[in-house]
Fold:
Amino acid sequence: MLRRARTGIRRGAERVDAASPADRDRAVDALRAFAILGVVLGHWLVTALVADGGTLHAASPLQHLPWLAPISWAFQTLAVFFLVGGHVATRSYTAAQAQGTPYAHWLRARLSRLFLPVAAVLILWTITAAALLLSGAELGTVHTLVKLALSPLWFLVVFAALTAATPLLTRLNPLWPLAVVLHVDLLRFGLGAPHSLGWINVAAGWLVPYTLGAAWTRGELDRRRAGWILLAGGTAATAALVAWAGYPASMVGVPGQAVSNLDPPTLAAVTFGLAQCGLALLLRDRLRSAMRRPLAWAAVAFVNLSAMTIFLWHQTALMATTATALTAGRLPGLHTVPGDLVWVACRLAWLPVFALVLAVCWTAFHSCERRAPRPSGPGPSRVVRVNRTPEGSPARPAHHA
Structure:
């Protein structure tokens, strides 16, 4: 049975590999998949829901164990996602222009893919929140759950805004938004400007990797020297900001911390993102080589086809596991204070359970993502899905942006 399953998986992977266009840049899809999975694993590792009587409140192991900050360096991968997003959107828009596709049609196709799957999340959590309140759950608990479940949506709003502005951004030098972030932080932290000024960096901060993606499309980052400059310069700048300018070492928000590098993005988060983008660019050749393996490529293609579903439902999977397991009492790694290595070890043991619950969510809701219209146009934004004829032989591949 096991041998038959392995044979089936291998043959399926070979069909996906054979159906993929020979000229596609598989490194782009690999980087996007790694960025999505990095965000998911990061949230699962540093998000804790502590049970205190009948109330659940959010906590983080980084709050109690600050020396674990390097975890956030490995799994805060949003800059890579914006890098790939800028690259793909620029290629797609350029192709749409060449084909005479109106801007409104191009934008509607791209945003439909983003927002159609959101409807299912909003509907389910509206019903869930109402049911919890009617059943007598504490308002603080409901607020915590809903906030965590819907927190990924901020990312989609920013990404959608940058996508809509792509025609204006295709030639923008990344140094301009970087300069905006620098001046906003100088005003906030150096001259005592209001904290609300920092929200300018929500757009400016993510514009930096997005416009780097556009520069990639223009061929300006093809030389390895560009990757090394970004990696070395971003690393040095981030280290200096953390060591001497008082920026937090964690690249994600930590409850109780006076300053968050991510909410809104600080200069340290942006320079760290530059280092990540540099590393991503340097890894392109190795990723292209690795993606020649059918199993690796099929896994990356699957993640790309399910990216929105995975991203939108991973927090729900964590909370569903936590809430269901609470009926068995306060379990370590789920409901206890994340204050020691025992909690860390237990949380690692819970990761397969989160993945299993996420798989259930995927089964229930991935059709929302599959029904979304896909932008047309050539380039690495396409992900291959092999259609089968009734006899089981591979049909012509369908391409998805």
Observations:
- The chain has a mean pLDDT of 88.
- Strands lie at 48-52, 55-59, 383-385, 398-400.
- The chain has 17 helices and four strands.
- The longest strand covers residues 48-52.
